């Protein structure tokens, strides 16, 4: 029917069978940004929000999101991840928080979805923690920046 791997020949959804794939080192990096008013970013950086340390809570939420990806995305395999890091940095010139999530594993399938869910969950958590003081917050630029490992090899998004 199509070249999409999550559909069989009749078009029915299926989980991809990875049992014949080689175990390789896998890594994926996803990025996101949360745009806000400059005064809101100052509150985040200075720890002056009522809900606490926004960046620390978002980091933990991102890690938890990566671990729960198969519970959220129907056809994702449950994976035993080796490492999840979520870095958040204030970007004052652009008045935003930049997020980068890196997921590593040795396995038969990639970790792109786990990295994307980690970055998205961290961004949503930043949003949730600051929405009461800044209604114009926007989550942008969620994307896969890099993936490596497996049969398809390396992919890097254009900068």
How would you describe what is shown here?
There is one protein chain. By secondary structure, this protein is α+β, with helices and mostly antiparallel strands. It is built from four helices and five strands, in the order E-H-H-H-E-E-H-E-E. Strand 2 and strand 3 form a beta hairpin. It is elongated, with a radius of gyration of 17 Å. The mean pLDDT is 94.
How does the SSE layout of this entry go?
Blueprint: E1 24-35, H1 38-46, H2 54-67, H3 69-72, E2 83-91, E3 96-107, H4 112-130, E4 138-148, E5 155-156
Antiparallel strand pairs: 1-3, 1-4, 2-3, 4-5
Helix pairs in contact: 2-4
Percentage of residues in helical conformation: 25-40%
Largest sheet: 5 strands, antiparallel
Task: Estimate the mean pLDDT confidence.
Answer: 94
N- and C-termini, Cα separation: 34 Å
Give the radius of gyration.
Answer: 17 Å
The stretches of 5 or more residues where confidence is low (pLDDT under 50) are none
**Beta content:** 25-35%
What structural class do the secondary elements suggest?
alpha+beta
For the biggest β-sheet, the strand order reads 2-3-1-4-5
Q: What's the shape?
A: elongated
Q: Helical element count?
A: 4
Write down the secondary-structure element order.
EHHHEEHEE
Total beta strand runs = 5
